[in-house]
Description:
Helix content: over 70%
Number of strands: 0
Shape: globular
Distance between the termini: 36 Å
Amino acid sequence: MKINKTFIFFFITAIACLSFLLFLVQQFSDEKITVGLLLILFSLLMAQAVYIFFDAKNRGEKYYFLWGLFGLLNFPSSLIIYLLITRVILKDKNRKTY
């Protein structure tokens, strides 16, 4: 697997966004969230975003970078929406009829 500049930029952007969001949740939440739970959430979101990024890139999606950022929004509905759009909706749209 070749890691290119786009993935490195995506990964740094993703870590910065998630770190900032988790900081905001920790600071402004009435109930304090444990560090272990934050690490689990961070890991799940990063794994989902990286999977969506590489899958969209391998499928030839035009905006694979944005698909990866979309994967950072929440878990698992971003993955479900991505799979539905790319596997069902776009597959039917790109299907050739003879």
